[in-house]
Specification:
Number of strands: 12
Strand order of the largest sheet: 4-2-9
Order of helices and strands: HEEHEEEHEEEHEEHHEEH
Shape: rod-shaped
Structural class: alpha+beta
Length: 326
């Protein structure tokens, strides 16, 4: 009993202490949201930066990072808190790296001179634009300065390189506040905003688009259970125990059935005992079916004494026939 009782009490405790809930990568249906369209039929000359699509496109990347997913320009985006992008969810991506060391300029250097110097160092293309805060019209006193440029014109459909691509919507996130140095994660932040701009523009700034038939799902995290090897071992032990008990029970049932069958052949009452005595006496006689003896045959039987061994025995019809033949 102890071999069964102790494991039965310990198993629930072991299972609850070792089995942990986990979240794993999977996919689920995408219903509605921002869906990118690479056909080029866009409603806007430049991506809007002050609506809900901007927030969804940017936050979907942050959600994917928190859930261990990938970052890029997604084919679809929504506010799903379980979103975790995989390669199949990414249309393209931006890779931003720091180009050279930081450059310092003397106080009083005007913005135009700074931009010209950066262009001369090939850190900006020749079509650079700037956004600044805290600056006077003279372009001397400013707290934050953002310069950006592209290797192609605005209306070009060719592939292009961005030396810096900033706009007023994300200038602040590149810094940690007024008078602070640039954020150490500025390259990643810039890449996410470039992804956001592309998704908004190619998604026509709409969160009402449905998933295309060719791509009805998106990556996500789902709840699962982490089962350690110890639990598997305990399950195997339980299976072995059940198998042994089942075999023991089956053997017991077979023995019980056999004993019941044997018990059916045991004579019950004086008539059956008389028949059994006759059967045992006539076993082996030719042309005699001892199993055919019935209670009605008893009226033709009687006891007699075997004087040779001084033991009484039953005289049946077969016994009498044998006596007549002799």
């Amino acid at each position: 009993m102890s071999l069964t009782f102790i494991p039965s009490k310990l198993t629930p405790l072991v299972v609850t202490s070792l089995v942990d809930p986990v979240r794993i990568q999977s996919e689920h249906s995408f219903t509605k949201g921002l869906v990118t369209d690479t056909s080029g039929h866009y409603f806007f000359g430049m991506p809007p930066q002050n609506g809900a699509p901007y927030i969804i496109a940017l936050n979907s990347q942050l959600i994917s990072i928190l859930n261990g997913g990938q970052v890029g320009t997604y084919t679809k985006a929504n506010a799903d808190p379980n979103f975790a992008a995989t390669k199949s969810d990414i249309l393209t991506e931006w890779t931003c790296t720091q180009d050279g060391e930081d450059i310092s300029y003397d106080y009083g250097t005007i913005i135009d001179d700074i931009v010209s110097d950066l262009e001369g160092r090939r850190l900006l293309f020749g079509n650079a634009s700037t956004t600044r805060t805290g600056s006077s019209d003279t372009g001397i006193n400013f707290s934050h300065l953002v310069s950006w440029s592209s290797s192609t014109d605005d209306d070009s459909t060719d592939s292009f390189e961005v030396r810096a691509a900033w706009s007023m919507s994300f200038q602040g996130v590149m810094y940690n506040g007024t008078g602070t140095p640039i954020n150490p994660e500025a390259a990643d932040i810039l890449g996410r905003h470039l992804n956001t701009m592309f998704m908004i523009q190619s998604g026509n700034n709409s969160l009402s688009s449905t998933s295309p038939a060719s791509s009805p799902t998106q990556g996500c995290l789902v709840d699962a259970t982490d089962v350690p090897l110890l639990i598997v071992f305990l399950v195997l032990i339980g299976f072995v125990k059940i198998s042994i008990l089942s075999l023991w029970w089956a053997g017991l049932k077979i023995r019980t059935w056999r004993r019941r069958e044997q018990a059916k052949a045991v004579p019950y009452g004086w008539e059956e005992w008389m028949l059994q005595a006759g059967r045992e006496q006539d076993i082996g006689r030719k042309h005699t079916d001892v199993l055919a003896y019935k209670p009605k045959d008893l009226k033709h039987w009687y006891f007699t004494m075997d004087h040779e061994i001084d033991v009484p025995h039953v005289v049946t019809k077969a016994t009498r026939e044998d006596a007549l033949l002799k």
